[in-house]
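#struct-help
A.M.: can someone run this one for me? Single chain, 280 residues.
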Amino acid sequence: MVLSAQSPFRWMDSGLHQNSPLDPLVLDEALAASMSLPGAVPVIHLWVYDKALYLGRRDAKLPRLEQALRHFGHQGFGCVLRSSGGACVPLDAGVLNLACLLPDTSISIDAFFQLVTALLRVGLQKYGDITFGEIAGSYCAGDYDFSIHGKKIGGMAQRRTRHGSILQLCINVEEQPRGAMMETFYQLAGLDEMEKNKPIPHMDGSTIGSISALTGKPVTVPDVKEQLLAAIQREWPVLIEPFAVPFKMVEESRHHLSERLGLFAFQARELQAPDWRLPV
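D.P.: on it. Structure tokens below:
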């Protein structure tokens, strides 16, 4: 599937989230469910969460994960176990998240990644040459990491639903010590104690960057949103719409993620409670 004049996509921004870190994932899931509706077209959903650790399934095997999450709860970070692939990603108000959703479950994994790669090349070209490929030592390292000057500024993870395909990605826009923070996280969580099933081979905080730091300019999340939209509109048809998805689909998606898939989510204040325990 390609984007063409005959298949525009909807551009929807749900803004800044600060309640349950599961909320934006629920909205992504509901949008994926809406791909089953008549006349469904591709969607780009933009969102920001301040602050949380978005864990991958592999992170659940860390031997001291509970201790690490409790520590970061006292630093103001919540947590959520997400359903897409990859390992832990730290989010804050300086990270822009996008979900690209297609009403197509047959598109190959590589083709979907290549589609979104094309979108990013166009949308981020103002900030320099974007390189795609794994950045060894980075958090959530993978073949579709993207970087500037050898420093990872983001990555992608994909999943399928019954009605559509979702590719979720994050872009480090404003500078924060995310690399050093993730070194601490994996040290506390016992990564080095694991002999097998490691979520990542190792963590090197120096591999992580941001658009702002790597360009030497005070680039903000709103700047990148504006630049992405303007650049992409020159190449593909876009329908800019207020965020909207049927309430019933939101509630069904929340139940699906939390009950059927067993995803947990906690805000920082919950992780700070003396009696908090990681769900078994």
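A.M.: thanks! The first strand starts at residue 9 and ends at 17.
D.P.: also worth noting: The two ends are 40 Å apart (CA to CA).
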